[in-house]
What does this fold into?
Amino acid sequence: MISAKQSRLARRIAIGVVAVVVLALLALAMFPWGALDGLVRDRLSERFRTRVALDSVERIGWFGFHPTVRIRGLRVAQPRWAGTGDMIRVEQADLRFAALPLLTGSFDPEALSLSGAKLALVRDGDGRKNWEAQSSSGGGSGNGIESLSIADSFLTYSDAKQDRSFALRLRADDSGVFATGKGHVRDAPVDVSAKGAPVTRDARWPFTVAIDGSALSMTIDGAMDHPLDTGHMNAEIDAKAANLRYVDAIIEAGLFGTQPVNLSARADHDGDIWKIIGLTGTIGRSRLSEGHATIVKDNGRSRIDGALDFATLDFNDLASDAGLAKAAAQHARTGPRILPDTRIDLKSVSDVDGSLDIRVAKLLFDDKTPFTALSGTLVLDHSRLHISPVVANLIRGTLSGPVVIDQRDRKAPQLSVDLTLKDSTIATFGGAGDFDAPLSGYAKLTGSGETIRAALGRSTGTVALVSSSGVLPAKLASFIGLDVGRGVFADKDKQARLRCLGMRLDVKNGLGTFDPLLIDTSRSQTRVVGGIRLSDEQIRAALYGAPKKDSILRLKKPITVSGTIRSPKAHAPEGAKSVGNILGMLGDAITGNQRPLADNVDCAALRGKVLAR
It folds into this structure.
């Protein structure tokens, strides 16, 4: 039982507590916020790590739990690395906030009015930003502000990392938020305009951004979860550009130079996660039928997972005009090449990981080519790109297998290919109907270089091809067997049988040696000695052959081959066409002083030797 004395004590304590709370609330409601100008300077100086000055801080009105603080003459100096002058200058800023949340350590701004503000934002080539103490990938939060007013204010933005700059006039009132001005994206001038709905607390905030110029035209039409909440938004994006790098200067996805693009997509941003949905459009004459990707940023790295489906793709569209001009000049100097000069350096994506499925329904080329379609899954993990498997569909057959580009702890990337050719034919790769046979084999090579051509030009490994049960012109079968008589007099439409062909090219440091290269036909057998230098695709070889039946005219010396893989050149032995040499060949035939005739080769054994791994 509580005594009367205890009851009176409890009432006094309760009254005391209530009095303390009431006094604390009254003190908070009447707090002279203007006395905190030193704290404001210190906090801003700590935030931006630079000098901060202000003329005055005063409270507007003397009582209330939603006070307005007026700041005059605010100046935040540029960090030294960003240049001279001020990063922020504000003639007057009125900030209304809720005082009670301060008791729990949170800050809840409700309204902001700026007049005479000048913002000079800078990002350097390393991505350092003057407006952030530390890099942040999540974007602004919006903080639920319910009223924004901006008058007589300007923003300049200079970005050395993406080579872009803008100078914008800012305005915000009851009709909305506006920014208009001009700028440059890479080397191209653009006009910029942006409009947002009036700022209201806790409401979806629609906005539009338009960038318009001769090299880049881009519109972004979307909505943020809250006003100015760039970290949580959805948008429809349409972009036309002379080059994909102009688009990349805005979206910063690490894209490369291309032919003109016209692309559309939906982008959803939720904190550190971007989702790209319904990516469609054209790159040059290539058509992207559907694409999607999820991009997650974490601790300075990005992970991209998605898929790209091309209805058509021309690899030339994935190079800029400058890149194509460089390739054309290279072609003029060196002539046609089989090994592509495509760059494989992964330095620009050293902070990117992910998995990307790519499917191309139809490949487009200016020249005749056996390749018709392409697919593969690209897995990138800390500067190691694994494509497994690459599947290239041919007019007949497939070329498939894993390709790895590894630049971990390497100055130049290391390229490893292990491709298998199945169910193809000789005619698929440029033969004609009168020279055709099934063709299969593999290429397993490893080398280092900045491009595919450079890496394979220094590679070590094996290239193997086998063929059998085919046909070839009878004239050709005789000539490669050094049988001049039958080669000259054979009917041009007559065919011989290709019993088997086997080529094994053993490659060391880019120099390939035939071991063996043997062609066995119904008329002759030919052994090729020599090899190929992969760096420039030069052939240095000699053909030693023998017919399978007696011949009137047989060459004693081999036929030599030079030129390139794409344009080989055969040379008859010196003096082969002279009268003396012809008489000598006739004499050998009469006297029986000819080399032995060729026997049929064991095709199964040849196939096994060539394809051995």
